[in-house]
Predict the 3D structure of the following.
Amino acid sequence: MGWGRRAAAAALTMVLAALLTTALTVELMPDASAVRLRPPAQRVTPVLHREGFADPSVVSIAGGYLAISTGFRAPRAVSSSPRGPWHPVSRALPKKLPHWVRSPQIWASELVRSRTGWLLYYSAVAHGKTRRCIGVATARHPLDAFRPVGRRPLVCPQRGAIDPSGFVRSNGGRYLLFKTQGNPTSIRLLRLTRDGRHRGHRAHSRVLLRSQHTIENPVLVRRKRHLVLFTSEGYFGSCGYETTWRRSKNLFRWGRSEPHPLLRRTNTRICGPGGADVLTAGRKNPVLYFHGWTCGKGRRPCPPRFVLGRAERPYARRVMYAAHLRWKHGTPRVHGFIRRH
């Protein structure tokens, strides 16, 4: 399984000590707002690039931060600072997975704090299917190995489901957002039990968005009287993949909400900026984590015409970037990218 919880805690302690002697600064790039698509003056560099780190989910933990990624049994990394350095720790899921899971290649997991510990929502290919289902696992501490709940997946429609994302209403009600696979695409919302481990009583998923093109990776954030829904749109294996946002006053009504661009190649110089997650807990100002494609052994973004599988690009991988997220009149804006020197 790699490192255990003690080793992970020791690694985080070493990171804290190293930061006392290492000068790390954050360089704020020019504003890349949701309205004025102006590219940064300098190239944005990833905060975590080794081995790749796609579809990041980042949470605050004691002494720092924990990130989880798409990959074999859900890779994890820890840091004492939002900008890194990030250090790998043990995989989130155990070697022995539920019988319904056919492959340990896990997509776009989501870490959520619960009343008794932590929840991990994950997407895996199920036996007898070519598409994915969503399961849930629990742990008392976020650095522990998560234990899958039950013998069956939490969500498993015929068309498949990916990109789970948790949301808690002001009244404490828990919900799960996810994307159905195939076309047309739909973003759905499912009511859960209070502990977040099971479907709510007689609960059925509700369609929030439906589209003929790809909309995925839903992340819902409450902002005063509004709800803001972040999504990724386009083909994930290209530089045209982008992050958008919508706004609504009603959790169940998004049909008339218009998408607005937040992250694009043209305003970030990053190839395919998507898979975004918003870190809000314990912070006055949120941080936006997302991935983008780099080609070659360095940190340079893939060229604008890059399309996964269409042409050979050695060492093409998705790496993690970070940016400061600010709000102006209810509009989310990127207020500088985080860069480690």
